[in-house]
Amino acid sequence: MTWLVTGGAGYIGSHVVRALGAAGLPSVVLDDLSSGHESFVPGDVPFVRGSILDGSLLLQVLEDHRITGVIHVAGFKYAGVSVTQPLHTYEQNVTGTQRLLAAMESHGVDRIVFSSSAAVYGTPDTDLVTEQTPKNPQSPYGESKLIGEWLLRDQAVARGLRHTSLRYFNVVGSGDASLYDSSPHNLLPLVFTALVEGRTPRINGNDYPTPDGTNVRDYIHVSDLALAHVVAAQRLDAGDELEPAYNLGSGSGSSVGEIMATVAEVTGIPFTPEIAPRRPGDPARIVAAGDLAARDLDWRMRHSLREMVETQWIATRGAAQPSE
Question: Locate the NAD-dependent epimerase/dehydratase domain: which residues (predicted)?
Fold first, then answer.
């Protein structure tokens, strides 16, 4: 049972690869390194540099490594940027997924775990998102993820594909000091960079109807997320029936103010965040309920907020150190 991890050299994908190894499941990584790092791939895991847009390469990888299932993490993940680069977003996330599914069909690979996103919900009317919450993506990125789920659904009807999709909001932390989040758009990398450069991090609005006036969002540890992908893969291997999609959420969330206070405590760099105006359309609170995933995928929050921040800070500082 060998699993292909697309995007396995990225921040999330590399944690999935390590979780597979810890569970005794062999894997192969396919990554074009557009945002990943070859150094993130363990030395005993085969690595193929290439794109999921390359149909011939996909066929070769599936055949050469006798792949039995796919954990599909690869994609263009920047929601804000996707608004100005919609064609690129759709090519990477929709066309890429279509070509992957076509290659899987050709080789009889019939199981896939899709790394989706809570962006499929857009800005919902409820502050607690469930899998039944209406889908209303508000960026090409969110739309592309929803289309990816539709592709899996339709391929299941047409060819018996066995699948599930995992939806989540903000991923933080590190399960290995050598693995760090290098995204220029995610909250903690932005905050850490500002502090290291002597700038003051910013909060957009502190007058929301929340306990401390700042937005409340879901933050989940990357290792917990990776483990859920592996359990989903194991259950597909076992022939179990899974829901078409699961939310991986805390059910309660953390405020941006809490994040900032925890960052100051962990880093030892005292600061008072600058308060900027609210961003248009930003809801006060959005978190996801993880009840179905808890039932079927052993999903739970295994890390505290402090552990999330602390592990990411350690990894970030390690990445910033010059190599010997």
Answer: 3-249
Rounded Cα gap, residues 153 and 162, in angstroms: 9
Q: Are 98 and 186 part of one and the same domain?
A: no
Are 209 and 91 within one domain? no
Token pair recorded at residue 137 = 């993506």
Q: Are residues 316 and 258 part of one domain?
A: yes
pLDDT single digits (tens) 95-136: 999 999 999 999 999 999 999 999 999 989 888 999 999 999
CA–CA dist 1, 231 (Å, integer) = 14
Q: Contact 31/8 with Cβ under 8 angstroms?
A: yes
Contact by Cβ (8 Å): 5, 218? no
Q: Which tens digit of pLDDT belongs to each residue from 35-77?
A: 999 999 999 999 999 999 999 999 999 999 999 999 999 999 9
Residues with Cβ within 8 Å of residue 189, at least 6 apart in sequence: 181, 182, 183, 316
Name the catalytic one among 141, 168, 180, 246.
Answer: 141
* Domain shared by 63 and 195, yes or no: no
- The string of DSSP letters for 153-177 reads HHHHHHH--EEEEEE-SEEE--SST
In CATH, what number is assigned to the domain containing residue 229?
3.40.50.720
Contact between residue 284 and residue 211 where contact means Cβ atoms under 8 Å apart:
no
Whether 78 is catalytic: no
